[in-house]
Amino acid sequence: MSLHDTEDVHALSPMQEGLLFHTLRNPDGAMYMQQLAHTYIGDLDATALRSAWQAVVDRHTILRSSFAWERLDKPLQLVHRNAPVRFTPLDWTGLDERAIREREQRLLQEDRERGFDLTDPPLMRFHLARLGEDRHRFVVSVHHLVLDGWSTGVVLREVAAAYTALREGLPLELPPVRPFRDYVDWLRGKDPDRAEAHWRHELKGVAGPTALLPDSRPGSAAAAQHVRAVELGEDATAALAVAAKERRLTLGTLVQAAWALLLSRYSGTSEAVFGSVSSGRPAELAGSEDMVGLFVNTLPTRVQVDPTARVGDWLSDLQQALAAAREHEHVPLTRIQEWSDVPHGTELFETVQVVQNALDPSVLWERFADLEVADPEYFTRTSFPLTLAVVPGERPLLRAMYDCEWLSDAMAERLLGHLAVLLGELAGDPDRRLGQLPMLTSGEIAAFAVDTATGASPTVLDLCARNAARRPDAIAVTGRAGELTWSALEAGANRLARHLRARGVTSDAVVAVCLADAAAALTALVAVWKAGAAAAPLDAGRRALDLAALSTELRPALLVTATAERPQGEHEVVLLDQDEREIAAHSAAAPDWDEAGTGLAWVALTSGAEDAPKAALLDHDALARAAAALGDELRLGDDDIVLAYAPADSYPHLVGVLAALAG
């Protein structure tokens, strides 16, 4: 493009400057790219479709803009007189649905990796794949520098209007639009001092982000992002509609409230700090709702969560606070970060939520000539490890886009389930207190249920199996050698239990466990129970002579240990490090032995009256009742951590194990 083709040159908005900086710093093409895909059903005129898109690009200055930054003190955007759209035709006729899906996913991925040349407008690409006589799949890729979610909705509606006019031979009649430059000029007139005072006050005392998961660290910017989604149920959808009408609550308020409550419970804190995406369109700028460009901004939201607060009052106060923050939503996040107490190099938040009103499929295409628009999909990526999007509609959709190195798929699905429950509960009785609102799904409640016919508490083996089934990818135990998920713990214990049986362990046996690593020790403990035997833990940190005396006093049928931790004495042993391959050869399926989970479970040696070791015995019924009591008393959440600080052969250690299983 030559300067003769340039009709205007102006500064970037602060949000654009920040996005350009991150785009140049992260060459990953997927960063800050939007992609849309949908199917046209009917007699599509491909030429008219291309002309419709060209008409809309010609209509908006931002869509004809390129960016310059090299050898400049401040980056600039250049508005070109002409920016021809790039259409690529594809032929996918004759392919089955699976092959079409694979082709589309490959196309989307390759186009993301390709990225954009920011000096060559329009920063958009189009692919039109013919599927059959009356079916076409259309894919659009566009950079966030020129289009946000709201603007995408505006553009899609205008394209539909332009295509319809072209097909019907009518002139295109759309109202005049303001250039994006008007918004940039409006921003210059804002008082920076008032905005700084607001954000300094709002964020005073915030030292860092509210962690969704304990000890979690987001992966790299190039890490793959996964997507999970859940549709709200009929009851929750109806409750949201009533809350909006009778209590004048916006969907945005309810979503931010639900996310704050969930974050507070997951993190165990009395407040939540997260990012909220604002439309950024000022009411005082006439016509801003129909303008196209990058207006959207991500702002910090800080919410106090008092379990004793009444739901109605809390939501009303939150909605007022959110309205006050909107007066200062034009400030870029980088500047707000500078005004906060958060140390340099630490992010203000790690999770972001957004209500994508403009992408409600029911309003995007009110009329597209005689075509039906079906199967719409939307992809975007940001630098945050988790973005929660809510798409309104007849049944609102909750969609999580997350760094898969940071959050597992199972955890993402569980999180969405909790959020859906909280949304419905917040829209219910306003006189309830926050602490009374449940968030467990019906499936989780069923998993926690005990046998009401007999009143029996779940055994320790029942608790292990339920944790493995309900939260397989959650961390069960962390030891010196690493972490074990609940599913890995269950599989490892099943293999070791089969190995113990093969070594002659019977239901009346006592098996000693002497292992320093917490993960290996817990696996061995559960394996002994699964084999139907009683476990006798030994503290591997004891002096060698004391350990030898205790192991001899126990007279175990078998000793599970490792070469470096093996107590002195003559014992039948299973050395986990040397028998690893033999143990791994056993099936990971749960064994079906009737005696497992019954009878003697725990043997511990305590000091007797004359300082001679004395055995203390506990059966499985006692462990089950203790676990149930601990669960009722402590009410640990799934993400609470139990610190195993006591010696392995002590009662405090057993209490910690039972509390973790019951939590």
Tell me about this structure:
The protein is α/β, with parallel strands linked by helices. It starts with 5 loop residues before the first strand and ends with a helix. It has 20 helices and 22 strands. The protein is elongated and about 95 Å long. The chain has 3 domains: 3-181, Chloramphenicol acetyltransferase-like domain (Chloramphenicol Acetyltransferase, 2-Layer Sandwich), CATH 3.30.559.10; 191-367 and 380-443, 2-Layer Sandwich (Chloramphenicol Acetyltransferase), CATH 3.30.559; 447-662, 3-Layer(aba) Sandwich (Rossmann fold).
Q: Give the spatial strand order of the biggest sheet.
A: 8-14-13-11-9-10
Find the count of extended strands (DSSP E, 2+ residues): 22
Proportion in helices: 25-40%
In CATH, the architecture of the largest domain is 2-Layer Sandwich
CATH superfamily of the largest domain: Nonribosomal peptide synthetase, condensation domain
Helix-strand makeup class: alpha/beta
Number of structural domains? 3
Number of helices: 20
Find the CATH topology of the largest domain: Chloramphenicol Acetyltransferase
Distance N to C terminus: 63 Å
The whole-angstrom Rg is 31 Å
Mean pLDDT: 85
Major β-sheet annotation: 6 strands, mixed
CATH class descriptor name of the largest domain: Alpha Beta
